[in-house]
Amino acid sequence: MSQAVKFSALHVRGTPFVLPNAWDAASARIYEQAGFAAIATSSAAMAWSLGYADGEAVDLDALFAAIAGVVRAVKVPVSADLEAGFGTGVASVVTSFERALAAGVVGANFEDYDNAAHDVVPIATQVERLRAIRARADALGTPFFINGRTDVLLHALGEPKTRVDRCIERLQAYAAAGADGVFAPGTSDLETIARIASAVDAPLNVLANPTMPPRTQLAQAGVARISIGSAPMRRTLYVLRDLARSLRVEDGFSYTRDPAIPFDELNDLFA
After folding, report:
1. Are 150 and 174 in contact (CB under 8 A)?
2. CA distance linking residue 20 with residue 41, whole number of Å
3. Rounded Cα–Cα distance for residues 191 and 109 (Å)
4. Per-residue pLDDT reduced to its tens digit, 89-119
5. The pTM is what?
6. How many CA atoms lie within 13 A of 270 on its CB side?
7. How far apart are CA 55 and CA 73, in angstroms?
């Protein structure tokens, strides 16, 4: 099977797989060595690793080069987080898809959040974008996995009592427009997750957080995919920040006694 077909086959309702989010070739390679069947990039973590804030502020040439580096480093399928497509018009979103495809990824997240407006775009706008990407992928004969994401819950937009209904409405529209899967970050409430999963005719992706129910319960709720997001990078940088602070104040070098992957092991990992 092609990488794209392998990736698509992982999405089974009620049998969720964990999709770890990398920020560079090294993190991707370590995920692969741990046995993950596929890897995704994190938009926030990749932006930070390249020296930019999250929110479509990253240099696109640097981003797509980094994504290509992740793909090159591993043998498993890679999906990319392309935020809202890095542009307001359909043409710019399709161009981002084409650049991601050229980098070697087999799928991508496309969200509906407008960073400038601090709100989601109209449903019709996002549907037009998704249809354009689907049409371009079909024209190229590429089984590209489009993950249609809404940020209604993540950013707590609109009246609280309407948010879940609005989330479902959007995800249903995105699936009808050609999204292969749907993504609803921003909730760990099992009842809400189950309601979304049963209402949308596409595999549901959720974002892990400290209050997220265990995988067995998410499986019962109908989840197909669990993303980790930027959390691993943030935890890694927390350790690095502590190390940096200790280097500034300690007379010795205690960090050299901390657990670490041996040099030769890491070098062999990339040989």
Report:
1. yes
2. 8
3. 24
4. 999 999 999 999 999 999 999 999 999 999 9
5. 0.95
6. 15
7. 26
